[in-house]
Amino acid sequence: MTSFLELAEKRRSVRAYKPNVVPGALVNQVLEAGRLAPSACNKQPWRFIVVKDEAIRRSLGTAYAREWFWKAPVILAVCILPGDAWTRPHDGRNYAAVDGAIAMDHITLAAADVGLGTCWIGAFDPAVVRDVLNLPDGVAVVGMTPLGFPDTEPSPRVRSRRPLAETVMQERWG
Fold first, then answer.
1. Is 172 a member of any domain?
2. 29-118-99 Cα angle (round to 5)
3. Is residue 174 part of a domain?
4. What is the mean pLDDT of residues 28-38?
5. Are 142 and 79 in contact (CB under 8 A)?
6. Separation between Cα atoms, residue 71 and residue 64, nearest integer Å
7. In the predicted model, what is the mean pLDDT of residues 33-60?
8. Closest residue by Cα to residue 12 from 99, 119, 165
9. Residue 173 included in any domain
10. For residues 130 and 140, what is the distance between their CA atoms, to the nearest angstrom?
């Protein structure tokens, strides 16, 4: 059995996908992981959109102009509903984006666990995505990811990570 740290190390941003259909059971397993993600006060202010239709995927490609993005057999959009999310009373900070990001992270890790590739996309034109997906008012897309079988074996991590000692700002005990 793979440990969580091994799974986190295994997950990569995949930018080349086989055209093979992703079985519905695998898509559902990945979505279930997103559904199980924690959220502030258990509000679960997310919704997932599964795009398999090539014409719609191509249209989403106008919001993020990378051919590999829309050529994946599935695109998942993680939407958030800020009006349904918990808001911190001390400063009014709405947690919809945080909750949606946690759900997206669960999705990408679950996909890696079952041999599927993903690539978290945030650099898209939100107005185009809103139009293509015909989103109602009060719904925003926090991120999208292509989903499919990697066309090549993901390479070992190229980008280094900061050492743990550089990421822990301070420790307080006692």
1. no
2. 70
3. no
4. 98
5. yes
6. 12
7. 98
8. 119
9. no
10. 8
Q: Is residue 37 part of a domain?
A: yes
- Label residue 153 by pLDDT band (50, 70, 90): confident
Output the 3-class SS for the chain: CCCHHHHHHHCCECCCECCCCCCHHHHHHHHHHHHCCCCHHHCCCEEEEEECCHHHHHHHCCCCCCHHHHHCCEEEEEEECHHHCCECCCCCCECHHHHHHHHHHHHHHHHHHCCCEECCECCCCHHHHHHHHCCCCCCEEEEEEEEECECCCCCCCCCCCCCHHHHCCCCCCC
pTM of the model: 0.92
φ, ψ of residue 106 in degrees (nearest 5): -60, -40
Total domains in the fold of the chain: 1
What are the structure tokens assigned to 157, written together?
């991590």
Q: Each residue of 105-138: b (16+ CB within 10 Å) or e?
A: bbbbbbbbbeebbbbbbeebeeeebbebbebeee
Give yes or no for a contact between 43 and 99, defined as CB atoms under 8 angstroms apart: yes
